[in-house]
Amino acid sequence: MLGQSASLNASNSKTFSPAFCLLPPASCYNRWRYTLQYFDVDQHQIEITFTQLVAAYNTAGRYYHTLQHIHDVLHKIQTLPADSQNLPSIQLAAWFHDAVYDTQAQDNEAKSAEYAGQVLTDLAIPINQITTVQRLILNTKHHQATADDIDSHILLDADLAILAADPVDYQKYAHAIRQEYAWVTEAEYIQGRKQVLEKFLQRPHIYFTPLMVEMAEQAARANLQAEIQRLSFDR
């Protein structure tokens, strides 16, 4: 999410970061169980896969892309208009879209989609649902979707909702992203990060759903512009 690993040269150093889920474990687990309510999944399998997801989102180097982020995305999905064509798939895609996250790699979304396919197959989720989940995850790579892809619109807007946070929370988010790219030199990070932010500002709309365009677009653009100014000053 808003990284620039494809354009930066990596070193091999990594640091451990604690899980960033501020929620009680039971709350995270209940959300996972709620997501699977649409399917006939064995309780033991629900517990096993949740443990696996917790491990995935607690890997080294995560400061923003954690279970807290997943919780926030799922919460935002629930607040968007209920015109989704396939809410269960959107929710599953939200759970898995950052399951594989390495800022030094370029294929995180593809690997996350592959991982989702493996886990959901083990849970006996219907193949058509799995295919949709994987497509949604892949669309988070560039945060683009066709005009009629309502399911992607909802997921992408929920994923990008942080851009419209109040300025204090936005700066915390921006700092967490910088921590995830701690291996990148300051000059390289500033250049790459500004390119990412400017690409979003060049879009006609950052968001897709009418509600987010109306309620969040202006705040998101203000936050992005403010960060670009800070980065330019830091240089």
Tell me what you see in this structure:
The two termini are 23 Å apart. The protein is 60% helix and 0% strand. The longest helix is centred in the last third of the chain and has 18 residues. It folds into two domains: 146 residues, Hypothetical protein af1432, CATH 1.10.3210; 74 residues. The chain has eleven helices and no strands.
Summary, kept brief:
By secondary structure, the protein is mainly α. 60% of the residues lie in helices and 0% in strands.
Main features:
Hypothetical protein af1432; globular; 235 residues
CATH class of the largest domain: Mainly Alpha
**Discrete helix count:** 11
Number of strands: 0
How many separate domains make up the residues?
A: 2
- What is the 3D form? globular
Order of helices and strands: HHHHHHHHHHH
Mean pLDDT: 90
CATH topology of the largest domain: Hypothetical protein af1432
Distance between the termini: 23 Å
Please indicate the percent range of residues in DSSP E strands (runs of 2 or more): under 5%
What is the subunit arrangement here? single chain
CATH-scheme architecture of the largest domain: Orthogonal Bundle
Radius of gyration: 17 Å
How many strands, what sense, and barrel or not for the largest sheet?
Answer: none
Outline the low-pLDDT stretches. 4-21
Q: Share of helix among residues?
A: 55-70%
Compile the SSE list and pairings.
Blueprint: H1 25-35, H2 43-56, H3 67-79, H4 87-96, H5 108-122, H6 127-139, H7 150-159, H8 167-180, H9 186-202, H10 210-215, H11 217-234
